[in-house]
Design goal:
21 strands; binds N-(aminocarbonyl)-beta-alanine; alpha/beta; binds zinc ion; TIM Barrel
Length: 489
């Protein structure tokens, strides 16, 4: 089946131009002015619309077992909701329980993801350490197309790793040509602060941000970055929510270190006043880590995105319905904010929220929008130009974007499998009109056309050209030019 998208403005990270796009099978075949449609091709009229690479969300948690429950969104419903919002690929996380084999966990997640309607890949978390973990990391890189390993510096007594594990894993990742990704919060400090806040009698959702101030994020980001600097491995800091962690990234980037920063759409537009909502369920719906911040951090995050300190945008889509947030029998979470499952949704809304508040508000150009919603992620995680591009040979993962279309976000109308929406009532201009995944229409005329199992696992090879330079350079010196080889005696 061929499709020709006619009359639109093709936007890539490099620029924009009026052009048609011819898709043959799963691939983009040609991009140009006045392309002829082959016999039997379907024509999609894109006049007045932007034709862009489908969004890539580098941070999701479909059906994640977490904090005593399981995230309500599964791989089919989640990739379907993603398509309704113009996102055509996710990178989710395999998170082994401590002592669980990485390879066994990876295979379990691959099984869960078989029902995905759009393409997916996996970061794999290192949650403990021994020689079998090092060996599994090698197998994952060499045989399973994994090039990124995740480290949680928070969630003490669950999946948090200490510096010893972090260093072991970073060293192994460097050998393998993989990138280290990090949830940066000082978990020991969070643990202490949680107890202190709780013992002061602050037990509801408003205690959550008090126990995770920006400083704990800044400290951990800086520590992870410095460890990565000494080891000479690239590092990617997930869900930066505040000035403090951005400051660490900005300094390291200025010194030439290969550090990448991710920001969540919700941290750009929602502030910490949500925790003061007298409706417990509504306040708990925003309990995620790192938490929503005071307004001044949002302005800083936008500047970070505009200036290149932050490279990618994500959602950390990790949905829990109100009964899950409340806890099980006896509702323990209702009386102890430490037990509220951490996570929020938004995979369906990321593109529209970023377009409306980014491009619509004059903060981002359309090309910058493409860079931060797909291309930069594809480059960092080594799937460019197969993904995050519209060029001959690229996968035909495309969103036809109606910049004038508008919708009011609501849990009543969204396609996400969760009973709340953190953007409830927000009207956004800029919506996905048609979404294609490898040449297959997933979303059109306001209707989902997804089927379970049409998504494919995407391999991501190690040693990407995009950041391998740091590894070579670090054999000789640190980014600041300090000799790394010991002087000969
Ligand atoms: O609150 C969050 N972010 N939940 C998902 C797990 C994580 O930390 O990314
Ligand atoms: Zn996290
Ligand atoms: Zn996450």
């Amino acid at each position: 089946m061929s499709i020709i998208i006619k009359g639109g403005t093709v936007v890539t990270a490099e620029g924009q131009a009026r052009a048609d796009v011819l898709i043959v099978g799963e691939k983009v075949h040609a991009v140009g002015v006045g392309l002829d449609a082959p016999a039997g091709a379907r024509t999609i009229d894109a006049s007045g619309a932007f034709v862009m690479p489908g969004g890539i969300d580098p941070h999701t948690h479909m059906e994640l077992p977490f904090m005593g429950t399981v995230a309500s969104e599964d791989f089919f419903s989640g990739t379907s909701a993603a398509a309704a919002g113009g996102t055509t690929m996710i990178i989710d996380f395999v998170i082994p329980a401590p002592k669980e084999s990485l390879l066994a966990a990876y295979k379990k997640w691959r099984g869960w993801a078989e029902k995905a309607a759009a393409d997916y890949s996996f970061h794999v978390a290192v949650t403990w350490w021994d020689e079998s973990v090092a060996a599994d990391m090698g197998t994952l890189c060499r045989e399973h197309g994994v090039n990124s390993f995740k480290h949680f510096m928070a969630y003490k007594n669950a999946i948090m790793v200490d510096d010893e594990v972090l260093i072991s894993s970073f060293l192994r990742a460097k050998e393998l040509g993989a990138i280290c990704t990090v949830h940066a919060e000082n978990g020991e400090l969070v643990f202490r602060l949680q107890r202190e806040v709780f013992e002061r009698g602050i037990t509801g959702p408003e205690g959550h941000p008090l126990s995770r101030p920006p400083e704990v994020e800044g400290e951990a980001a800086n520590r992870a970055i410095r460890i990565a600097e000494v080891i000479g491995v690239p590092v990617y800091i997930v869900h930066n929510s505040c000035f403090d962690s951005m400051e660490a990234i900005a300094r390291a980037k200025a010194e030439g270190q290969r550090v990448f920063g991710e920001v969540l759409a919700q941290h750009l537009v929602i502030d910490d006043s949500v925790y003061l909502n007298p409706d417990w369920d509504r306040a708990a719906a925003f309990v995620m880590s790192p938490p929503f911040r005071a307004k001044e951090h949002q302005a800083a995050l936008w500047k970070g995105l505009q200036g290149g300190v932050l490279d990618t945008t994500a959602t950390d889509h990790c949905c829990f319905c109100a009964p899950q947030k409340r806890g099980g029998a006896g509702d323990p979470a209702m009386t102890d904010f430490r037990k509220i499952p951490n996570g929020t949704g938004g995979i369906e809304d990321r593109m529209s929220v970023l377009w409306h508040h980014g491009v619509g508000a004059g903060r981002l150009t359309p090309s910058e929008f493409v860079a931060v919603t797909s291309t930069n992620t594809a480059k960092v995680f080594n799937i460019h130009p197969r993904k995050g591009a519209i060029a001959p040979g690229s996968d035909a993962d495309i969103v036809i974007w109606d910049p004038a279309g508008s919708r009011t976000i609501s849990a009543k109308t969204h396609h996400q499998k969760v009973d709340t929406n953190i953007y409830e009532g927000m009207t956004v201009t800029g919506v996905a009109a048609v979404t294609l995944s490898r040449g297959r229409v997933l979303w059109e005329n306001g209707q989902l056309k997804t089927q379970p199992g049409t998504g494919r696992y995407i391999d991501r090879p190690c040693f990407p050209d995009y950041w391998t330079a740091q590894m070579r350079r670090n054999e000789a010196c640190t980014p600041r030019g300090v000799a790394r080889t010991l002087p000969k005696r």
